[in-house]
Amino acid sequence: MSFDAELREFTIGPLYRADAERCAELERVLFPGDDPWSAQAFRAEVAAGHHYVAARDGDRRLIGYAGLAFVAALPHAEAEIHTIGVDPAHRRRGVGRALLRALLGPADAVGATVFLEVRTDNEAARALYEAEGFTVVGLRKRYYRPSGADAHTMRRDPR
């Protein structure tokens, strides 16, 4: 899948184990006050067979990542979005939306309800999720560690 956002091309494709170090590097930038994922955590997610995707710029450099896991099978399929991250230099160009849609496609294909957590103070992410059909269904106090930030649990019904 290829996208042209503000004259900056990027592609969406699989996330590979070899991308783990770059993902961990971005995690440290994106989530400094919390517990950013390690390279090993990314390798484990990919090895477990969860649906992980990457956004790459025209030079094939990883500029974003996202992952989803199916947690319940048909007839009541459920999935949860584990993570979405975009390099700050590439934000507001459609990368996050493209990553999210790349996760939702497989969930929609099996009619899965999708859940996620988002920091209550992350208005941009919450607006993106709402635009893609998610609604707030709960509040998790002190969900993020070690910052103690609260999270909204959001849900998207099957499509």
From TrEMBL:
GO terms for molecular function: N-acetyltransferase activity. It comes from Pseudonocardia asaccharolytica DSM 44247 = NBRC 16224. The keyword Cytoplasm does not apply. InterPro entries: AcTrfase_RimI/Ard1, Acyl_CoA_acyltransferase, Bact_Acetyltransf, GNAT_dom. Residues 5-159 form the N-acetyltransferase domain. NCBIfam families: rimI. Signal peptide: none annotated. This is Ribosomal-protein-alanine acetyltransferase. The keyword Transmembrane helix does not apply. Keywords: Acyltransferase, Transferase. The lineage of its organism: Bacteria, Bacillati, Actinomycetota, Actinomycetes, Pseudonocardiales. PANTHER family: AMINOALKYLPHOSPHONATE N-ACETYLTRANSFERASE-RELATED-RELATED (PTHR43877).
